[in-house]
Amino acid sequence: MAKAISRRSAPVRKNNGANGSYKAVVEGVLANRRASHYIELADDYLKRLGYTEHGFRHVNMVSRSAHDILKKLSFGEKDARLAAAAGLLHDTGNMLGRHGHDRTGALFAKEILEELGYGVEDVTTVMMAIMTHDEFQGAIPNPVAAALLIADKSDVHRSRVRSAKDIKEDIHDRVNYAVSSSQLDVEPETRVISLDLVIDTEISHVIEYFEIFLLRMKGCREAARSLEAEFQLFINNIRMA
Question: Which of 10, 109, 173, 220 is the most exposed place for a label (fewest CB within 10 A)?
């Protein structure tokens, strides 16, 4: 699993846009009070609804994974850094409700990135990526969107479960809690993106994973194709897709 980067209290940097290193982009976004506050409120609202964790652990992991996917597949530095920014902001729309959070989040990202000095082309690239991250809707608008979708849907792990007491009643909690290991890898030479999961079948049967994630895995496959890559899924060392 990718290592999450904690939020920092560095001063907001104006006009940095998508320039600088991955670390600079992440620190620049998370140092923005509006961005960090929206992430906190979005996760708090989902917690009240009983959803799995969507806070700083999740967005940092998605940010790093999306960035690394494009870097390893030899896409441009700018696209990789925009994917990092999109990963941090993609779930902010949950602050105003789960339904349509992709659209709300895209508008929030516009507000935040313009405040940080991102140019209009970069802002719209991130907005389009966030608009299509939730469920596959038939079109992948750009490489940033493809990387974001794959990174987001690959974050399945028991660390996302807020309380194990409800896993018998909630299939999403049960499936996530059953995943003891989740590794997203990118092989540059073969252009294969693989998600390798270890699922404790005493907690959740493998079929339950596909009950809730089948459409998401199809989305990952289409997103990989748009990157001229292949998406593969392994569960307990057996290839499933």
Answer: 10
